[in-house]
Structure formats: C-alpha cells, structure tokens
Amino acid sequence: MGKVLVLNASYEPLNITNWKRAVILLLKGKAEQLEHYENFIYPTFPFPSVIRLRHYVKVPYKDIPLTRRNILERDRHSCQYCGYRGDQLTLDHILPRSRGGADSWENLVTACVRCNIKKGNRTPKEAHMPLHKSPRKPYSSLHFEIVKCTKDNLNHEWRKYVIGI
Ligand SMILES: [Zn+2]
C-alpha cells in the first residue's frame, strides 16, 4: 500500500505521493478521493489510490534525466532487437558512437550482449536487425513514473486517469 496518484482540479495527473500525505490532504479538505484500495486505515477510511485537488495548481516542468537506468526502464528491460529479458543487457547506440551517434533518447536503446556484438559498428539497417519500435523520449517525468507504478497490473485504477499507458 502506498502510492497515491494526485490529480489536479482539472483531472490531469499532477504527481505521485505517499498515502500519509494523501490522507492529510483529504482530512484537510484540500482533496477528494476518487479511487481507493480494498484495505482500510480504519473502518470508514480506506487507503486512497487516486485523489483530486479541489484547487488548480500550476505545474513546473520537470525534465527526465537520460540515464542508463531510465533507458532500461523505458525499454521495459528487454532487448529492442530480439526481445531478450534478463541481466545481460547493455545500451546500444543505434548510429554507433564511432560514426557520430549521439547519447540521446532517440539514439540509445537496450540491447542484449549478443545483439550488441552482432550489430557491431553498423546501423540496424546495415545489420538487418530492425528495432521493435523507434525509441523516443518519455512524455514527461511524471508519465514515466506512472508507467513504472502501473506495470504488472499494479494500481490498475490509475489507468482511467492517464492517457497513453
Ligand atoms: Zn538481443
């Protein structure tokens, strides 16, 4: 039990908080509860899952850092060439670094050691190794966090409020 999706007054996802902070917002009347878990904090008060703020707040833009961990997470820890999942994963530059390929969301993908070696210093086209999907930067830091929190059908009631997951 723990994560709570906070929606803005406009119903757009705003952030993810923990249940204690969510309960404080509910008790202070600053938010309303839209979805809850089946467990109860006390008999008339279930653990919140999705809450909505009563007043609109402006959201500061938060960029998502380009890190190995985030790329693996974006690619769901699977090789983008053969679909392998496991711990033998590396990062592959689609256009090799030696040929001017950049470190970017669009040029880095998760690849297993075998595919990375097989592809070598070639592009996917040259190596006849098409990518399962073309990589892109995640929509937003929050969207990325929501995807993580809803995998394996966790927090499935969040899906009603989030586009594109
Ligand atoms: Zn592979």
TrEMBL record:
This is HNH endonuclease. Keywords: Endonuclease, Hydrolase, Nuclease. Residues 66-117 form the HNH nuclease domain. It comes from the Bacteria. It comes from Cyanobacterium aponinum 0216. One of its GO terms (molecular function) is nucleic acid binding. InterPro entries: HNH (IPR002711), HNH_nuc (IPR003615), NA-targeting_endonuclease (IPR052892). Pfam families: HNH.
